[in-house]
Amino acid sequence: MKHYDPKEIEKKWQxxxxxxxxxxxxxxxxxxxxxxxxxxxxxxxxxxxxxVRNYAIGDALARYYRQMGYNxxxxxxxxxxxxxxxxxxxxxxxxxxxxxxxxxxKMQEEFSALGFSFSKEREFATCDPHYTKxxxxxxxxxxxxxxxYQKKAWLNWxxxxxxxxxxxxxxxxxxxxxxxxxxxxxxPQYYLKITQYAEELLxxxxxxxxxxxxxxxxxQENWIGKSIGMAFSFELTPQSVQxxxxxxxxxxxxxxxxxxxxxxxxxxxTHPIVKALLDxxxxxxxxxxxxxxxxxxxMRTRSLEKRGVGLPxxxxxxxxxxxxxxxxxxxxxxxxxxxxxxGVPGCDPRDYDFAKLLNIPIKAIIANQEVPCIxxxxxxxxxxxxxxxxxxxxxxxxxxxxxxxGHLVINYRLQDWGISRQRYWGALIxxxxxxxxxxxxxxxxxxxxxLPEDVRIDGEGNPLEKHPTFKDCLCPECGQEAVRECxxxxxxxxxxxxxxxxxxxxxxxxxxxxxxxxxxxxxxVDEYIGGIEHAILHLLYARFFTKALRDxxxxxxxxxxxxxxxxxxxxxxxxxxxxxxxxxxxxxEILEKYGADIARLYIxxxxxxxxxxxxxxxxxxxxxxxxxxxxxxxxxAKPSQECPTPQNLxxxxxxxxxxIHVALQKCHAIFEKDQPHYPFNTLIATxxxxxxxxxxxxxxxxxxxxxxILTHILEPIIPHVCSEIAKRLFERRNFKPLSVDSSALEQxxxxxxxxxxxxxxAEIVVAKDLDNATLLQEARASVQKWLESKEIxxxxxxxxxxxxxxxx
Length: 808
Fold this sequence. Notes:
The chain has 808 residues and is an alpha+beta fold. α21 packs antiparallel against α22, α21 packs parallel to α23 and α22 runs antiparallel to α23. The radius of gyration is 34 Å and the shape is globular. The two termini are 64 Å apart.
């Protein structure tokens, strides 16, 4: 078939790959391995171009390393629990389970149609019972080790979805899924003690430098937010003790050198002292209402506009003994330090704004500087006046330690990870509430605890709370009547260990979490590919989970992802593709009109993976024209068992052969990451140049060598058409490591630019070893019209690059 028919070719090869199980990893652990992984999708039922771009990158790597003789694990699964399925159940009156599995089926079909080389035997959904069983096992072990605990706290509550949200899931004060304004609600919550690993998570970033994008490392470092400072207490006045029931207020500061500039103390809206004052009803109605309003504002948006309330309390300065007023401030975080801070408006812009708002005095303790000033020489600071802020910090730290006024501590911005969700479609938390025994772990032999399927989902709270029989159970400890936990887990819990589960063969899924030899062989992931929007949430949680499971004895590695590639967004008309903007292009449309290889070539050619991709229909047409030409010109080559080395070539043939081997050289450099960010667009351009050069020749042996190499290079990018050509010509014997012929790269002739006064005027092709006198003669002849009536005052030769004539 000499006419290119993408549908016929693609169906043929997809069938071959499925029948031969071409993409399944081997159990031969003596082979070198590559674990190539793309972030798993939510089963929405519709593959979008963002998916295609992500998976096309991973697929190119997986296919390349298979050619290179590696044992490749390239799996795919589905992050299948979560709110969208529940919302769809309400909207379409379907069960979340059937909606989820139907969508997975549709997406699997599209993945196959795009030619992605995923392992089918390692595929699973995070809502599968075998996955839930192991996840609940992890939960119980973490709880027993103290890595999970329950406490009452103020939480982000979405009144529309009726569920708790993590801080990271609140964007501009709104729910990241439904855009509803988030409220604050006090309720019990299960927490993962990620703060216990804060220092190790921070230190691990050093290992990842050079392998992860710098901006991702920076974002994680900032999120962990390590700070070293002094913790100490402000003693309360007797009247304040009587009102609040507290004797003092502990604060944390990294700037003890500014202690003499303190003019107020600010408490978080939910600080225990504030709660005590509200409970005792000692505040005036306006103050009380303002505090309640602040409490009900999400922490992420509290600090956008400064708000505060004065309290009828005063503290005593530890050094000057001055009385310090106390306020509630909306920008103070409950989880950082003690939930209280010393206000130094003369040295901190945030404190300065707050002081100006509430008419609080401002002390300028930095000499000869405008307020607020952060660093400088102290003034009006007793015997510390005249010292630099750095000197004062050192001396005051020693003073506070010696007088036992305070002590040095390390604090982290990172807070423990709340995982309780009050909705149905999620993995159940395997705990039981017993009136006698309290909070009790479910027995391991009873796992998995699965969701009842006979539920009515109407969007009004958690349907598990209203189920007639699910809640009622017997206590695993004493056997008395008890109540089952109805909260389900945050879906980030599932996506924090799925990459480990892929290493386990399917036949072991119901028996154990991991197969130790397979886990040791495959981990860590060699290349992880996904959007930069997951830089904090998913990647940080996955790193934590790996360390926690290591400490539980499941594995022995410290970091899950050796290398990370973050792909840019797919845009159309300058905006991210979305249904709401009406600028969606679906893979289904592209597959129907063009086929998978054209879609894949386009995705790789328009932009390098780390850059945004602006959709361009003309470029798509260009990709189609190239593949059609590439296929139809392949009939100029002849079948061959091995790659020929053509002899006695003329100049055009030598140039074409050089471009072919330059493309192979570039292929090795890009895939082996000698060039960062996998710039496949430059590789494709080089292959196009090689084909253009081939078309200027008629040497059959050269065409055969060209296709032997070019189909090898392009197979990871356009696998169907390359497999078709390579099968016909070479029985696909060329899908193996190929070496660059260095002699082909040696040029006998070179192109050199010729310029006059720095302006490029011509280009000459000359012998590589041409002497300077002859070279200058040819260069002058090529730009003669720009030299007429001019005197050449200088002749500059940059070897093998350019000749420049300076004239007057």
